[in-house]
Amino acid sequence: MKIVLATWGSRGDIEPSAAVGRELVRRGHDVQMAVPPDLVEFTEAAGIPAVGFGPNSRSILDAHRDFWTCFFRNPWKVRELVRSRVEIAGPLLRGWQEMSTTLMSLADGADLIFTGINFEDAAANVAEHYDIPLATLHYFPLRPNGQILTFLPPPLGRSGK
């Protein structure tokens, strides 16, 4: 089977998919992985052919750190907060088309697209375009224990769903 793994994020986002990719390679599948450019070397060291797409994850992580540092230390500095949010979203928005184009190229003739939770909407578009299955690895709970607001009593939290 030809399988394309496409996920974007930090190393912690890439590692779960890389573990799956490594096992698929071990089982004899033709696997290629699309990851942030600064994580290509890491992915290839795990034995998975990789292609870089989108911005480097480090730049986005640095911008996140700057935003939250400002938010908790100087929340009244609205212009700085807005600038930090633009530094987070801007590169991703500019790279979105390039990321989708790269995935379109990789997925041509694939039997499956496998993605992490950070890229599943774009991967779903490509899977739908080629009419191939899509699998998403949810490697951490988005709502722990089914609760949206953990400070609410569980019955009240579940009733709000």
Shape verdict: globular
Note the total helix count.
Answer: 6
Helical coverage, percent range: 40-55%
CATH architecture of the domain at 2-56 and 96-140: 3-Layer(aba) Sandwich
Total strands: the figure is: 5
Radius of gyration: 18 Å
Task: Explain what the structure shows.
The chain is built from 6 helices and 5 strands, in the order βαβαβααβαβα. It has 161 residues and is α/β, with parallel strands linked by helices. The protein has a domain at 2-56 and 96-140: Rossmann fold. It has a 5-stranded parallel sheet, sandwiched between helices. β1 (2-6), α1 (11-26) and β2 form a beta-alpha-beta unit. It is globular, with a radius of gyration of 18 Å.
What layout of secondary structure does this protein have?
Elements: E1 2-6, H1 11-26, E2 30-35, H2 40-45, E3 50-52, H3 57-73, H4 78-107, E4 112-116, H5 120-130, E5 134-137, H6 154-159
Parallel strand pairs: 1-2, 1-4, 2-3, 4-5
Helix pairs in contact: 3-4, 4-5
Properties at a glance:
161 residues; alpha/beta; Rossmann fold; 6 helices; 14% strand
Summarize the structure.
The protein is α/β, with parallel strands linked by helices and 161 residues long.
